């Protein structure tokens, strides 16, 4: 188990206010039982929630192809919620740095989703309050970008499934996907795909991979068919 200093160093985080970092891991139960400790992490939780929401909103806003407001709202809610934040906290082992009161420790606070999500938000706030605010992006990118991509894949895969189910509710035929154009350099290509039923084009889509383009074509077709 690494120390807090080792953890920060291994993550490449630039820290000039270690006291704020330590405060992020100080639960109110610890303060109640240790009168010499003055600050818990509740104020940081509030700030961290706002910082996290801004980070995710910026990520969604700048995604290409452009997401609708409804898609952004849905993805943000699925990406940033108590369960997902608690899961990330466990994966990073941030819980090991928690300072809990004896009672809270005995009742399983170190493994409680709500408490772990709060600690994660407090830690994000503490990173934000360092002079180098790029700490937030440096820490969150490797954690949330894969989660974001996985959610997008699920979202798009749902559209392919929904499209096929919709078509097969009226016919036993299967839709097919066809690449009609590819452009750009080999290390950053763009594919254009159409989804067809017999010779009828139901929808079109673009993407940085054939799979993503197919998913976007399915979404386009499904949105037209269910109007």
Please explain how this structure is put together.
The chain is mainly alpha-helical. Helix content is 59%, strand content 11%. It folds into two domains: 129 residues, Ribonuclease III domain (Ribonuclease iii, N-terminal Endonuclease Domain, Chain A, Orthogonal Bundle), CATH 1.10.1520.10; 68 residues, Double Stranded RNA Binding Domain (2-Layer Sandwich). It is built from ten helices and three strands. Strands 1-2-3 form a three-stranded antiparallel beta sheet, with helices on one face. Helix 2 runs antiparallel to helix 8. The longest helix is centred in the middle third of the chain and has 35 residues.
Number of alpha- plus pi-helical segments? 10
Mean pLDDT: 91
**Number of individual domains:** 2
Which percent range fits the helix content?
55-70%
Strands of the widest sheet, in order across it, are 1-2-3
SSE arrangement, N to C: HHHHHHHHHEEEH
Radius of gyration: 23 Å
In short:
By secondary structure, this protein is mainly α. It is 59% helix and 11% strand.
Task: Give the key terms.
mainly alpha, Ribonuclease iii, N-terminal Endonuclease Domain, Chain A, 11% strand, single chain, 227 residues, 2 domains, 3 strands, elongated
Note the topology:
Blueprint: H1 4-10, H2 18-24, H3 28-33, H4 42-61, H5 69-79, H6 82-92, H7 102-106, H8 113-128, H9 134-168, E1 176-183, E2 190-197, E3 200-207, H10 210-225
Antiparallel strand pairs: 1-2, 2-3
